[in-house]
Records
---
Amino acid sequence: MTPTAPNGWRTFLTLWGTQSLSVVGSALSYFAITIYLTTTLYPAPEQRAALAFALSAVALAGALPAIFGAPVAGAWADRHDRKRVMFACDLGSALVSLALGLLVILGALPLWVLVPLVALGSFLGSFHGAAFDTSYAVLVPPERLPRANGMMQTLWTLSGLLAPGLAAFLIALPALLGQRGVHLPFLQNGTALVFLLDGLTFLVAGLVLWRLHIPTPKRTDAVPKSLMSDVGFGFRYILARRPLLWLLGTFSVANFVGAPLGVFEPLIVKFTLGPDWQARGLTFEAALALLATVGGVGGVLGGVFISSWGGLKERRVLGVLVPMILGGLALVAFAFSRNLYLSAVLMALNFFTIPVLNAHSQAIWQTQVPPEMQGRVFSVRRLIAQCTGPFATFLAGIAGGLFPPASILLVLGIAQVAFCAAQLFNPYLRRVEDRAWLEELATRRAAT
């Protein structure tokens, strides 16, 4: 096992804090894109099908490059200095965000321009994520890994909490200032302000990162001449250890259920919950922000919970499956709800489970895979676990224009509960933390 770096925990805390800026900035941009599509490009009720397609296209642009580029990104991270990889990706992402802001200012951001820029940002994010996810395992002592994983989950959910309300405020800021006689030059559209701030957060995160010492573990195996040989290693490693493959299959089902939320949530707020929030005197932006913010609160509470508790020390697979079942039940109840506030509480419950299950899963992988191999293995892991998400998002874009989104979500939630409950009795998953058995399975496969 590769030893952790001196002062690694302190470095991790600094890295975690500064990279939080760019994560929050990206969450702001994603929410702003949703508002931009819903209120600027496709505002009319008769444009529901076009809006569903646009939301699906943007979601796919954000997911596909990250998922299918992950194996190459992971192999690249294992071959090169991880700090330099993260720094270059921070700068590239800053340029993408600044370009989005400039195009909004110029009034030249149609869907066919927006989608490629989102895809480019996602591609850069996949390389950054591959380097980042494998870096803190060599910074943090093994006994602190569950806590670090909980903090990482808190980071993602905290961004989900802060982004909706903050983005809604920033989008409305130029209009609010205009009412007071203050006009921001070139920033009549608040969406541009969000994108520009996102670019600034990437620049700050990159500059701070450059001053940190992020070790890159030395490889104990011979480095293949071909990058694609490294990509193939990740697949071979996982396929030789069937319990890990079953764990990924379970996440594939959960991601198939969860991926369409980005498409269905705005549609449900606009068309299913519309009578309720209109009766309360709210706007669509406020209702969507409320739902996302309360959901984010649930995610943050889940992250704080797992960070404070530290998670299960054994049988961690239960920390994956039980939260998945609870999250599926929350989605079923959400599909039946016609009350905005009740829907927000149910979304919070669903988001509460995500940091808990992800932290347990990450701890399993970090203890089963040597650090010098984690870039290649983790990236393939991400590909297998998330490959169903884009397919589900594509189907959601079609189905959302044909069927009530709440009905589709009901079916998906029931499927998640049933599948994950069945996995509690899967003999392979129940022994996924038995490293000696996993290596025995790999040896048997190599001998055949």
---
Amino acid sequence: MSPEKVGIHCPTGLFSQQEAEIIFLTEKLNQAHTAAAKLPWAQDLMEAVATLLTCERYDEESMDCTLCRGFSELRSKAAELVVRAAHLHGHRGS
């Protein structure tokens, strides 16, 4: 008997598509050492997460959708904090 794969099972496949990009952007964001260097990665992360937050097939009764939305909201808030920090340091993004 093989173990069940744990994760978010998105009916549209959108989560798995975006998750790869979100992980990449998060890694780049974490590797950057200054607010200015983090800013473009945070902005791109916000865009990638927004795709999940605006999913037209969101089902509040689905645990997968609820988890996706919850993780996406947290990631969006974290990226927004990085953008705000960069702006406090006088850096402007696109």
